[in-house]
Amino acid sequence: MELDQHAEELASDLGVDREEVRADLENLVSYDVPIDEAKQSLRRKYGDGGGGDDAAPSQVDVADVDTDDGNVSVTATVLTVGKRSIRYQGDDLVIYEGELADATGKIDYTAWQDFGLEPGDTVTVGNAGVREWEGRPELNLSEGTTVGYADADLDVPDEVGGDADLVDLRAGDRGVNVEVTVLEVEERTIDGRDGPTDILDGVVADETGRLPLTDWDPHDAIGEGESVRIENAYVREFRGVPSLNVTEFSTVERLDRAIEVGDEAPRMTVAAAVDTGGVYDVTVAGNVIEVRDGSGLIERCPECGRVIQNGQCRTHGDVEGEDDLRVKAILDDGTATLTVVLDRGLTEDVYGGTLEDALDEARDAMDREVVAETIADAVVGREFTVRGHLSVDEYGATLDASEFAETADPPADRAKELLAAVDAPAGDGGAAGGG
């Protein structure tokens, strides 16, 4: 149904001016308020005392909020408050976002206007819309939402404020604060929403892990080797892994102390790593059970670097392919499986020769597949420890390896470690250590 039809029905039901209703409805929808919630809000505004759509939103615990709910009321503690600008339907809007919690759980929220929320506030949020965001329910606080402040604090198990270690950050986190060392950073100019835009791209680290960083409003304090505190950042998925994002509303301050950086990546079971949805730097260990098709000698497009088949690139059509080496192997640790991808350097290590050696072997056998068979003989059935970037999508989990080495741990120790991870209580992530 078109917006005009919704406005016509509302105006007729409520006995008010159609153009006024349409303007109000259009305003709410422009702030991403679901149409049913927007109509309910206008019924309340214009005093429709009937039932049905006019029913008051139910008061629920945070854990009971569901994406099927139209609108709800909750009483909760504000854990975090982030602020950033977005562009919606051609307009620049400032939104506020973060997490709320009660004794039953946590939930994300987005406020389309400034309700004055501060971390630690206990509030009753009335008539909040519910939508699905990042696969879970999120509260939408819009023009029709009310926010009341309570004097008494709630007993919530979650920490107030956005301070976090890098290893705990996930795509979708907002209003986070971190203390990190800048490992690398470079200035880049991109084609932004308002034309050429200068940004900073880099990698930051703390004792628990590493994450890529993008600063959309370059801060002078972010320099290679600097230890900094970043407040009001958000995390989004970029190329399958979490990425820390800094905006014009973020604050960045140099610290007068060094943030120690761990040399090792967090070590997890395969299942725990996959459950994160993506990790920038992680170590797993398991047995290689298969070398997949597309391993060994391959050809890449000279323009974009993609693997080509029969001289055909999906983007550039007919091309003269460039020879390369790659391994795509299935790793299984008993909790789950993932695909490990080895680049040319790591593939040469497990193959025991160079690209030129592989080409010679293929010519001698008159079969390029012989190289993949040689690699499979070298790795299948053996246990390896792998470090790299893990991405998870609808096609499965893929670990782009930066390190790949046969496991030196005694089998008995590895078995104990695996059993401990499998028997660990839900929610501890199954991590077997930290870097």
Instruction: Please state how the strands of the largest beta sheet are arranged side by side.
Output: 2-3-4-6-5
Using DSSP, what is the number of strands? 23
Q: Rg from C-alpha positions?
A: 26 Å
Q: How much strand?
A: 35-45%
The structure class reads alpha+beta
CATH topology of the largest domain: OB fold (Dihydrolipoamide Acetyltransferase, E2P)
- Enumerate the spans where pLDDT stays under 50 for 5 or more consecutive residues: 49-54, 426-435
Terminal CA distance: 54 Å
Summed up, the domain count is 4
Question: Could you please describe the fold and organization of this structure?
Answer:
By secondary structure, this protein is α+β, with helices and mostly antiparallel strands. The protein has 4 domains: 3-54, no CATH class; 58-150, Nucleic acid-binding proteins (OB fold (Dihydrolipoamide Acetyltransferase, E2P)); 166-254, Nucleic acid-binding proteins (OB fold (Dihydrolipoamide Acetyltransferase, E2P), Beta Barrel); 267-433, Nucleic acid-binding proteins (OB fold (Dihydrolipoamide Acetyltransferase, E2P)), CATH 2.40.50. Helix content is 20%, strand content 43%. It has helices at residues 3-14, 18-30, 35-45, 270-275, 344-351, 355-365, 369-379, 411-423; strands at 58-59, 71-88, 91-102, 105-111, 122-133, 136-141, 146-150, 176-192, 195-205, 210-215, 227-238, 241-246, 251-254, 267-268, 278-291, 296-300, 312-313, 317-318, 322-332, 337-342, 383-393, 396-406, 431-433. A 5-stranded mixed barrel has the order 2-3-4-6-5. A 5-stranded mixed beta barrel has the order 8-9-10-12-11. Strand 17 (312-313) and strand 18 form a beta hairpin. The protein is elongated, with a radius of gyration of 26 Å.
